[in-house]
Amino acid sequence: MKVFDVIVIGGGLSGFMSAAVSANRGQRVALLTYGSGSLPLASGAIDFLNAEVPDEAIKNLPAHHPYKKIGLKNIDAAAKFFCDVTAQADLPYNGNLSAQIPIVTAVGTLKYSGLVPESMNASKLLDKKKIFVAGIKGLKDFYAAMIIDNLKKIFPDKIFEAATLDLKLLGGRDITCMDAAQLLTGNEQIFADALKNLNATEDDAIIIPPILGLEGNSSRAAVKSQLRAEILETTCLPPSPPGIRLQRAFIKYLQKSGVKIFETSKVVRGVVEGKKVTGVVVENAVREKTFPAKKIILATGGFYSGGITMREFDNPIEPIFNLPVFFTTGAENWSNENLFGDKPQGFSMTGIFTDANLNPIDAAGKILFENLHVVGANLGGCDKIFERSAGGIAIASAYKGATL
Ligand SMILES: Cc1cc2nc3c(=O)[nH]c(=O)nc-3n(C[C@H](O)[C@H](O)[C@H](O)COP(=O)(O)OP(=O)(O)OC[C@H]3O[C@@H](n4cnc5c(N)ncnc54)[C@H](O)[C@@H]3O)c2cc1C
């Protein structure tokens, strides 16, 4: 079998980004994955850090933080590369590393992110006088009245109006945003006609659930071109059409770039010679198969996706290469009473420690494998949910891992 220049293990955001950057550098790349990663659940926005000016705040992080190993130059380059991938899939994103952009959440609060889909960029609300919030009859988990109640606290001077659109297309049963996005693809005119009935002007904005298609920007363009008002999508409960659009944008890019994608391919172990990994072994229903490679990127998603497991308390395991896993010891330090409190959760800091080349290291700082790079949610030492850095660390570590 031919030797791949790069094998990426894991098909989430960090795996896709690693494969995309590697392919862009002319490498022969294979991506091995099972399961779909967390993108279909995610908002589609990329959070760098919960700070007004993320790049300034990143400079002050402790030395063991993944961002300090990645470096600002790489984080910035990753943001640009990411926007290029999405632009090529006609899925425009706004933002950068130096500022935060608001998006409206499903409950009507504002969430600030570094890179946001243009369809969700709520800074466009600032100069609007009137805001319509339009739900869809039969659509679950979108409550216009609640969204308006919360937005009124943020924008007390604006006028709000709730609406419920009856799109006959959707039938009688309760549907999710995913169902609605699927049903409206190719039937955008029905939605556009319903929105036109609101008689919104260029001084207005219409906030809607994220149902403008599951791919690219074409559904949004078809609707928006018929309205004078700005149209904005909120986040939603999973499954999330904006996350799925992002996943599809990457898959399109990888296919175009010649990356070989092997789905339902669970990597069970590495083939190791001294400090080099020469290949990985995949197990499927029938047999095992070895994929030889010059370089491996481990993007298996940490605790959330099976990249790290823990059958016994205080004994987390990285199951493919048996890498040492950093974790917070002692049950009393494992979690806080308050899930969304004011300090990081011990369990959420669990992960693998690396050197500046993202090579895994042991407790003494010794490099374990010279051609294995660890990226994304696998990286330990920070609570990515608490500090709101999951997407940023995923794309930036992937960028660095792929360019080494
Ligand atoms: C509900 C939700 C909302 C989120 N919202 C945001 C947000 O608003 N902003 C933000 O920045 N981030 C958000 N995130 C985080 C973000 O989407 C990703 O979780 C994060 O970027 C980590 O990505 P990853 O690629 O490292 O891991 P994952 O996305 O978990 O992907 C890991 C992949 O590896 C595969 N894998 C695991 N083990 C193996 C193996 N042995 N062999 C082959 N494949 C394997 C898994 O099946 C999976 O496909 C959210 C996440 C969730 C779950």
How would you describe the overall organization of this protein?
- It is a single chain.
- The strands form 4 sheets. Strands 1, 2, 11, 12, 13, 14 and 15 form a 7-stranded mixed sheet that branches. Strands 8-7-9-10 form a 4-stranded parallel sheet, with helices on both faces.
- A hairpin with a 2-residue loop joins strand 12 (266-273) and strand 13 (276-283).
- It folds into 2 domains: 4-93 and 245-403, 3-Layer(bba) Sandwich (FAD/NAD(P)-binding domain); 106-234, Rossmann fold (3-Layer(aba) Sandwich), CATH 3.40.50.1860.
- It has 404 residues and is of the alpha/beta class.
- Helix 1 (13-24) packs parallel to helix 9, helix 1 (13-24) packs parallel to helix 12 (390-403) and helix 7 packs parallel to helix 8 (218-224).
- The chain is built from 12 helices and 15 strands.
- The site of flavin-adenine dinucleotide has 37 residues, from helix 1, strand 12, helix 10 and helix 12.
